[in-house]
Amino acid sequence: MLSQNVLIYTGNILSLNEPKTKTSQNPTDELIETLKIVLQDNESSGENPVVIKGKKDNALQDINREEVKITVKVFMSSPDVNLLKEAIDEVCNYLNTNAIESLVIAYSVTETSEDLLSSLKQLWTGVEEYVEVGKLSSVGLSDVSTDVFIDLFQWANVKPNIVQITLATCCVVPPALQTFTKENDVQLLTHNDPGQILPDEELDKIFNGDARIYWVCRYQIHVKCRGILSSKGYLVCMNKTT
Fold it and tell me: Which of 38, 90, 128, 186 has the fewest CB atoms within 10 Å around its CB?
């Protein structure tokens, strides 16, 4: 059996006709369809890890960097801080930038609250390191319980100033979280991302074999003065066995 690591850059999916015309797609369907298009239209490199690149994203070319805002959400499958730092580095290198304005971590592995807090602390050490060197500005977490978020906040040297919650399973913002975010100047946002943005079974179908996600990054580039989304794309890092 052959085991390979694979890194996929989708490029700006706003330039792809298929996903762009299906505005009602949820993020998982959008990513699956985009991966199929990129894999069909682009050859992989012969190296290890295997690298597959869609059309180069030139959204930051010939533009004043201060006029745009880059937001990134990284979906982690493990608390390995080196994988998180790899994900951030790959996005920065791909977009040819040395800083990201907003980063949110989604870690949806089923764990007890105590284990989850321990895992998030491991990941947060990487966040703090990158904030200290100016690579990250606003940083936060997605879909953690109120108690876990508050515990991490109180433990952290660099405080999370964003928390995302999904209203798919919780139609009302927990009052305790709402109070805490107001008192501590934390931005409370809602989202429609699934707990697992790229399920293993869907990945297996795409690659005709056993596949396992390390991380998925979704980046968005907005023009600040006009609030226009100029670019959106995904980076996917995985292992496949054939």
Answer: 128
